[in-house]
Amino acid sequence: MDFRITDKFHLAEEDNVMQPSKNLKQRALILSGGGALGAYQVGVLKILFERLTQEDNEKGENNRLLFDIIAGTSIGAMNGAVLVSQYLETRDWQIAIEQLKQFWTNEQKGEQKGLASTLSEQDLEKTGGWKVWCEKSNEGKASSTIASVEAARRYYSVWHYVAKGAPRVHKTLEPRKDLRFFDNPLNEWRPHSSDLLRDTIQNFVKHPIATSPEKNEPRLLVFAVDAAQGETVTFDSFAKADGSRKSEYGKYTRERGYENVIKYDEGINIDHIMASGTLPVFYDYQDVDGHKFWDGGLLSNTPFREFLQAYHEYWTNVVHNTKEANNILLPELEVYMVNLHPSKRHGLPTDHDGVKDRLNDIIFGDRSSHFDEMQEFLALDLQDFAARLKDLSEDAISILDRESDKKNELKKRFEEILATSSSGKNPNRHPDTYDALLNFRNHYKLAKVVRIERANHTDAVSNKTGDFSATTINALITEGMNDAANVSLT
């Protein structure tokens, strides 16, 4: 496959090394999962567009992509798909972000198409508990323990959606009786259909999504969990080195390759996106090419590690399939991460719903990206150190007497080390040489990681990911704008 690397790199005359063009960098956007909280990412993107566009204009880079890579899990994958699809249609990031807002807020005149919906007090009363809360709240008894009006509205909005369904998001199905232990209602459950959500996404996303670097198009990465394998699977809008689009995972052997291969040459489709947001128990499994999938957030709701792996694999394919492989310097990488669950909270709750809310935030918050970032920098430093030792060894050997036995012996040993497979005798790893790793890795640089994380809301409730009421959705967008405006991008 021709990756057209010469469009973004040039050969430096002084050192005969392929150098990146002036100010060349790549930006990656990582969007976490969180159901209805995904509206927060719309507000963040509106401000990031303004700030990053201004930065590019000041540097004379006004024709570059706003984001070269967009990676998402669950609702983050859905937001990412809308954003990429709308950009491919319009070639305008501002319009694409505005369409992403329409995907949520439903502000367009005419037919309603967005995720948000309006609830009345009569709707809340149908939940049963709303009336009791109103009575107790009006009595003013134990006011310090009674939920605020806003918290109660959010709490009972979700219960309304669970019981009655949410327009353009999900439909409540008939309860499924327990036919195994016969201890209803403990094992009775009420699943929901995701067909409405599928239709809403397809109103804003043109499938399949297949992009390429040759056309200067953004790369879309969607993460889901193979429920049988218990492993995160990456669906990629970019093609592999052989021109195919496929996801490979599971056990790897040099003789047979990967245990599981899912092919989708035409690009990412609606099944891949739905797989990323298939919340267990609430929805049934999502089938993709005979494999059953669940929500990607179960294993990695902030998929920084999975993104880095996909990023490395792509550039390895580029390097290994070009004649300039040993002379390429890769662009700097900037990562912008938007997390929907707060990692920290001041003051721990003691009520049941509050404790569940904190538990959910810890489970689905950013649990590993700081460690992954540290490990990435450590690995890059070690690779740079090894590359310098390689250069030093070559210089030391070169100054020995040209015909000496010692020089020939050292040169042979040195070449044997470089030709050694980095995977050693491990049959489950790709065979690669230390020389190939050094020629690639020491040129890669993670320039910065910017995290924008939603803070804990005063009126937060444990079921907040299911609140698709228009009031909450608009408030989330505003929160995202405020947070993105105040975060440092340096």
Radius of gyration: 26 Å
Characterize the biggest β-sheet. 8 strands, mixed
Average pLDDT taken over every residue? 88
> What's the shape?
elongated
How many strands?
14
Total number of helices:
15
DSSP strand content:
15-25%
Tell me the distance between the termini.
Answer: 36 Å
Low-confidence stretches: 1-23
What is the string of SSEs from the N terminus onward?
EEEHEHHHHHEEHEEEEHEEHHEHHHHEH
The level of helicity is 40-55%
Class derived from helix and strand content: alpha/beta
Which key features would you list for this structure?
490 residues, single chain, elongated, 41% helix, two-stranded antiparallel ribbon, alpha/beta, eight-stranded mixed sheet
List the helices and strands and how they pair.
Layout: E1 9-12, E2 17-20, E3 25-31, H1 39-58, E4 69-73, H2 75-90, H3 93-105, H4 121-125, H5 129-139, H6 149-164, E5 171-172, E6 192-193, H7 195-204, E7 219-226, E8 231-236, E9 246-253, E10 257-263, H8 270-276, E11 286-288, E12 291-295, H9 297-300, H10 304-320, E13 332-339, H11 352-364, H12 369-398, H13 405-418, H14 434-441, E14 445-453, H15 470-486
Parallel strand pairs: 3-4, 3-13, 4-7, 13-14
Antiparallel strand pairs: 1-2, 5-6, 7-8, 7-12, 9-10, 11-12
Give a brief rundown of this model:
The protein is an alpha/beta fold.
Task: Report on the architecture of this protein.
The chain is an alpha/beta fold and 490 residues long. The chain is 41% helix and 16% strand. The chain is built from 15 helices and 14 strands. Strands 3, 4, 7, 8, 11, 12, 13 and 14 form an eight-stranded mixed beta sheet that branches. The protein has a two-stranded antiparallel ribbon with strand order 1-2. Strand 7 (219-226) and strand 8 (231-236) form a beta hairpin. Helix 1 packs parallel to helix 15 (470-486) and helix 2 (75-90) crosses helix 3 (93-105). The longest helix has 30 residues, at 369-398. It is elongated, with a radius of gyration of 26 Å. The two termini are 36 Å apart. Mean pLDDT is 88; it is low at 1-23.
